[in-house]
Amino acid sequence: MESLGKAFRVLLVLALPALLPPPAKAQSAGGMPDLFELDLEELAFLTVTTASRKPEPLVDAPAKVTVITRQQMVERGYLNLFDLLRDLPGVDTHSYSHETTSNRIAIRGVEGNSRFIIQQNGVPIGSPAGDPIAVADNFPLYNALRVEVVYGPVSALYGADAFTGIINIVTEGGRENEAAVGSFLGEDGYRYLYGQGNYRLAEGLRLSLAGHLHHADNPDLSGSYRDTFALNDLVTFGGQVAVPAAERAGYYGATDSHTLDLGLQLGETVRAGFHQSEFSSPTTTGMLPDYIDYGKRGTWTSTVSTLHANYDDELTPTFGLHVLGLYSFYQVDPDSKFNNIFSNFEDGYKYAEADRSQFDLQVTWTPDERNHLVLGAVAEHFTAIPKTTDLIVPYDPDRGAGEQPLYYVGSDDTLRARIFETSYDNFGGYFQYRRSWHPQFDTVAGARYDGSSRYGSTFNPRLGLIYKPTGQLTAKLLYGEAFLAPAPEFTYEHFGAFSGDTDSEGRYTSGFMFIPNPDLEPEKIRTTEATFSWLPSPRFSAALSLYHSRVDNLIMNTGTPEPVADFIDGGVIASTSHNDNLGDLELFGGDLELSCLAAFGSSTLKTWGNYSYIDGSLEDSVRRKKVDLPFVSPHKLKLGLTYRYRGRYYLTPLVYWIDDSSTDVDALVGGGASTTSAGSYWLVGLRAGVEDIIPGLSFSLRVDNLFDQRYANAGTGVSITFAESPQNPRTVLCGLRYAF
Amino acid sequence: MARPEPIQADEAEYRVKAAYIYNFANFVTWPVTVLAAGEPLEVCVLGDNPFGGALEPITSRTVAGRSLRLRYLERAESIEGCRVLFVGSSERYGLGHILEQARQRSVLTVGEIPDFALQGGVIGFVVRDGKVRLEINSRAARRASLKISAKLLEVATIVE
Would the CB atoms of B96 and A175 count as touching at under 8 Å? Predict the structure, then answer.
C-alpha cells in the first residue's frame, strides 16, 4: 500500500496540480510541482506518456503479447502490417493467394483475414461487419510508433471476430510540432509517398495528420515463370474461343492503396479521429491464366472509413470512465469486376457495402493495487448490402437495392438480380476481474455475453493464471473462447447465371447457383494455452508458447440438401450450394522465440528468431473428410539479425524457411486439382539504412528474395485457381524519409 | 550563458529525467582526485538539449553539500570539468569518441540514445510502459572509476 500511495502522490503532482492539493513536499515556492524533491522510487512511478493512461493496455492483457517497436520496424524494413505479420511466430502469410483479398493470413493455424481485429490506437479500423479484406498496404506503418499483437481468442473483452487475435497499431504519442515526409521507389513501378505531422494548435489541443498514396505495377510474373503463365486460347465452358492466344493481353498485377488519418486530441480526455484506407488489386490474382483475361483489367477495390470519438477519464483515483462512439463504413467500388470463364469472359461486376454504428461504455475500478475490475456494455447497429451476384453493369449506390436495373446473365434481361439487404443489432455486456493474490501470482476471470438480432446469442469466458516466480520468469496459463460473427458476405453469398435457354414451362434454366443461408451461425474457438517468458538480462530473452485450439461451426460451402430450384422467380435451377457451419478444426502448436543483443565498441548486434510447429486437421462434418490445416505450414523458421554501427548505419538480413502449406480444401469440395499444397521454401531478404544523413534525413534499402528464387505460396487450389501461386522474384526498393 | 532552445516538447518526460539527473549526484561517488569534498558539481548537456528549461532549477540547489552548475556544450572537446554529462541524441554518430573522452575524466555519462548503456554509456534512460526507466552499465561505471550506490542499482536494469 505504501508504494501505491507513492504512485498516487506523484501522479497527483504530475497530472492534477490544479485540481487537488499536492503534497507539501512536492510543491516548490512558485506553486509548480517540484519533481526534484522526489526520490528514485517515486520517480520510477511517474507516468510520462498518455499510452499508459489507457484503461487496459494490451501488454497487461492475460495473453501472449508481442510488441514491435518503431526501431524494429525500421530496421526490418516493414512497410505495412503484412510485412510485420510475416516475421511473427505462429503466423502463416500467403501472397497472390485470393482474388479479392489478394493475400491470406493464418494465425496459430486458423486462416482468415477477418478472423482477427485490427485497431489503431485502440479503435477498430478493419472491416465493420466482418467482410474479408486485404491486409496489405492499406495498413501502413510509416507513422506507427509500435504495434501490439495479442494472440488468442479475446471475445470476452472485444466481442465478435476477436478470434485469433487483436492487432493494435499505435500512432499516438509522437513528438509535437514534428512532421515527416517520405517515399519509397522501386523496380516494377513501385511508387509510395507519405506524410505525417503532429501539431499543438493551442494549449491542450493537438492535431495529427497522416496519409499515403501508393501504386505498384508489381513484377511481371509471366517473365519469371514463363511456363506457368504461358498464354493459351481463352476457351469458354461451351468450347468457344473467346480470345485467341495471339490476341491475349499480357500479365497484369498492379496494386494501389491510400490511407488518410486525422486525429484531434482535446486535453487528456477527449480524442476524435477519421481514418480511411483503400486497397485495390487485380481479380486475376491467384487464378490460372487459362481461365482469366488480363486485358480487362478487372480489379477489386475496397475502402473502409472509420469515424470515432473517445472520452477517457479517471473520475477518481479508483474509477475510470471510457466511452467510444464509432461509425465505420465498408464499400466495394462498384467498378470492381471479374472477367473469367465463369463470366464467359465478359465483365461481371460486384458490389458490397456495410456499416456499423457502435457505442461502448466501460468503467474500470481499481480500489487498490491488488484488484482491478472492468465492466462494459456495447451497442452496435449494422446495415449491409452483402456482396452481390455477378452484375452485367456496375451497381449504382445512389439507387436503392430494389431499384437497380440489373438482371441475371442468360435471362434476356427479364429476371431481375436479387440484391439482398440486411440490418441487425448486437448488444453486449462484459466484465473482467484481475486479482493479485501475491506479488508473484495474479488471476484473471472475465466473460462477455452478446445478443445479436441476426444470429442469436453467444457467451465467451476467459480465464488466466499469471505466475512470476522471479523478476525474470513469467508463466501464464490461459483459457479463452471467441466467436466469429457470420459476415453478411457469407450469409448472403450469391452468384450464378442462367443458360439463356428455357424449359417447357418457359422458365429460364440454370445449371448451378450459390444461394444465401440466413441460418448461418457463428464460428466458435476454444483455446487453452501455456506461455513462458524468460528475460535473464536485457541482452537475452526467450519465450515458449504451447496451445491447443478447437474450432467448431467453421463456415464452408456445400451443396444444399435439396436443390432450391425456384430460388429465382421465373427460373429453374438444377443444383444449388450455400455456406454452412460444417467444419471442425482441432490443432496443437507451439512457438519458440529467442532474441539476444551484443554490443562491442560502436556496434550493436541484435539477433532474433522463432520456430513454430503446428499439427492439426480440418474435418468436414457432412462429407466426413479430414484434411490438413489449410494455408498452414507445420514448420516455420524465421531468423533475423540487425547490425548497427555508430547508432547510424544498420544492416538486417532476414531468413525464412517455410514448410509445405496445404491447400487441401480441394479434397473436400472435389475440385479435382492435381496439387493440394505449396512446397516448402527458403527465402532471404536484406534491409539496410543510414539515419540522419543530415539531421532528419534517412535512407533505406529493402531487397526481397535476395537470391531471386522461384517459390510459391498456397493459393485457393480449387478449380481455376493456383494451388501453388508463384511469388515475386527479387525486388529492390529504396526509401527516403525527412523529419522536420 | 546561452541556453539552446528546447527541441523536445514532451515536458513531463524531461522534467522526470531532469529530476533523475539531480538524484544521480546523491547516489554516485566520484574519485576524490576529480571531485574534492565541497567542490561544485557541474552537469553538462552535450548537443541537442531536449530539456528546455527543465534542468535549470538544479543550479539553485545543493546536493551532498555541493552546489550544482549547469553548462551546455556544443563539442565533446569541451567536457573538461563536467562531472555529469547528458549526451544528446544528436551526438549518436560520435558516441564512441565521446564516451572514451568521458571515461578518461571519470564523467558520469547519461543518455537516451537507443541502447546507450549497452553501447558503453553509464546510465541510459528508456521509456517503458509509459515510465522512465534506467539502464546501467556497471562495467562502464567501474572503468570510469565511478561508484554507484546499491540504491540506484536497485531501481535500474543492469545491462553489463
Answer: no
DSSP state of A401: G
State the Cα–Cα distance between residues A159 and A165, nearest whole angstrom: 12
Residues of A with CB under 8 A from a CB of B: 14, 28, 34-36, 38-41, 43-53, 57, 59, 71, 175-177, 200, 537-539, 597, 599, 601-602, 604, 646-648, 692, 695
- The 3-class SS string of chain B reads CCCCCCCCCCHHHHHHHHHHHHHHHHHEECCCCCCCCCCCEEEEEECCCCCCCCCHHHHHCEECCEEEEEEEECCHHHCCCCCEEEECHHHCCCHHHHHHHHHHCCCEEEECCCCCCCCCCCEEEEEECCEEEEEECHHHHHHCCCEECHHHHHCEEECC
Listing DSSP states for A568-637 in one string gives: STTEEEEEEEEEEEEEEEEEEEEEEEEEEEEEETTEEEEEEEEEEEEEEEEEETTTTEEEEPBT--SEEE
Q: How many CB atoms lie within 10 A of CB B128?
A: 12
Q: Which three cell numbers stand for residue A638?
A: 524465421
Contact (Cβ atoms closer than 8 angstroms) between residue A585 and residue A544: no
d(CA A182, nearest CA chain B) in Å: 21
Q: What is the pTM of this model?
A: 0.81
How many whole angstroms from its chain centre is CA A290?
31
Q: Dump pLDDT digits (tens) for A646-700.
A: 767 899 999 999 999 988 565 555 545 555 788 999 999 999 999 878 878 899 9
Task: Pick A51's closest partner by Cβ from B10, B20, B130.
Answer: B130
Residue B56 phi, psi dihedral angles, 5° rounding? -55, -40
Type of residue numbered A20 = L
**Amino acid in position A688:** A
Radius of gyration, CA atoms only, chain B = 14
What ipTM describes this predicted complex?
0.79
Biggest CA-to-CA distance, chain B = 40
Interface A-B, measured as beta-carbon pairs within 8 A, has a size of 104
| Count, residues in chain A | 740
pLDDT digits (tens, 9 = 90+) for A470-510: 767 889 999 999 999 999 999 999 988 888 889 999 999 98
Nearest to A40 among B115, B151, B157 (CB): B151
Taking a contact as any Cβ pair under 8 Å apart, which residues of chain B between 19 and 48 contact chain A?
19-20, 22-23, 27
Radius of gyration of chain A measured on its C-alpha atoms: 27
List the single best residue of A602, A603, A642, A648 to mutate versus B (max B Cβ within 10 A). A602
Q: Which residues of A touch B18 (CB under 8 A)?
A: 35-36
Inspect the interface and report whether the beta carbons of A599 and B131 lie closer than 8 Å: no
Minimal CA–CA distance to A390: which of A268, A235, A495, A547? A495
Measure CA A186 to chain center: 25
pLDDT digits (tens, 9 = 90+) for A539-581: 788 999 999 999 999 998 888 889 999 999 999 999 899 999 9
